[in-house]
Amino acid sequence: MVVIRVRTPFGMFRSSFDSTVKLVEVIRKVQEDLLKKNQEVDGPALFVVPKKSDSSPLPANKTVGELNFTDGQMLEMVGGYQSTIVEIPDSEKSIFDLPAIPYEIPRCALHGPDQSCVRCMTAKYIRVDRKEKADCVGVEADKKSVAVFKYNMEKNLGYSVQRLGILYGKKTEEGWLQVDFIYEPPQENSATDILLLRNETEQINADTIANSFGLTKIGCIIGQTAEDCEDEEFILTAQQILMSAEIKGEAEDFIILFSGIRDGTPFVEGFELTDQFYDLYKRRYFLPPKDDFFLQVKEPLWIEAKEEMEAEVEFFIAPVPLKEYRNDFRCEFPVENRQVKQSPEFLRTLIAQQPGARLVDLINDFHLLIFLGSFLGETDLAALCSEIQHGELAEGHELIIRNIAEA
């Protein structure tokens, strides 16, 4: 099976195909997917390989194998849809396409409505200052989970691309954020960017598992390239902090772990984005970034005693203390959405290698539960997590899991 990705004007299509399948069948499946999204199909489509000097359409009568497509092959759709202009409601528009929401300035009592003073001239700007100390007391990250993420960055990816994981955990009574799980969503990785791919079912399963154990989304971890880490002052790019704000959503507490390598030594550091950054983000002040180190804005900011239409990324980042701890969850099953795919064979091997262990103890693994979630409904998955906490599996769930292992 080969995973084929198709870039269309309406989003990314991604599916697996046998090498004997003809390209025309791939085209048909993409068009069926567009119809499900209420996009109108208009005649036959043509596929090309993006960024290739020879951009002539690929022959639709040839098979995936004959076209020598590799796993993860990227194609671009040309034609085969109706290019209609649809009025998009504000609720569905990107924050970059909407006007900023400026702060309301109280009327100055010193002058009339058609005059101005120094107070009013400076009050209309948002003042941006560096923040030296984070609000978060600190982060305690599970050693196993972080080690598995770092291992993939070092041994499999060679710190050659960026990669992202979503952190799940809780806030302790002392105010520390405790990281227990790292979920790695579907994504495309390059040396300069991370493109998150939507898988709503898997994301719901990740949230269900976390919530069942009393955990919630508390941050993200970003693996950086070795080249970026050569600069000792480098932390995060403008695009990465905007992506982090989108991932945060309505989460109350949110931190960012930076995973990199410098002078041959892997490391992880903790940071948080300032409240002022999140406020500006909600007010839609930011424009799509033009470079890695500056955020362009729609309305002027007051930075270091002058008006600016861009701000350095470092103005919105504060370091957070980080230390290790160990939780009781296992972290042995292959991680979701990596090059090595999760499969029943890994579950079968896990059970066979520890014949004396109870099944309820073996499946106390976030990544294994993500895999089992693809066979179970949301309700059954939550029930399974509850059984793990109580240390006893229902007979039906144990039978299902053993059947999955033997598939």
UniProtKB/TrEMBL annotation:
GO molecular function (one): ubiquitin protein ligase binding
A single BP term in Gene Ontology: ubiquitin-dependent protein catabolic process
GO CC terms, sorted: nucleus
Pfam families with a match to the protein in the record: NPL4
Domain Nuclear pore localisation protein NPL4 C-terminal: from-to ranges: 163-230
InterPro entries, per the entry: Npl4, NPL4_C
Annotated protein name in UniProt: Nuclear pore localisation protein NPL4 C-terminal domain-containing protein
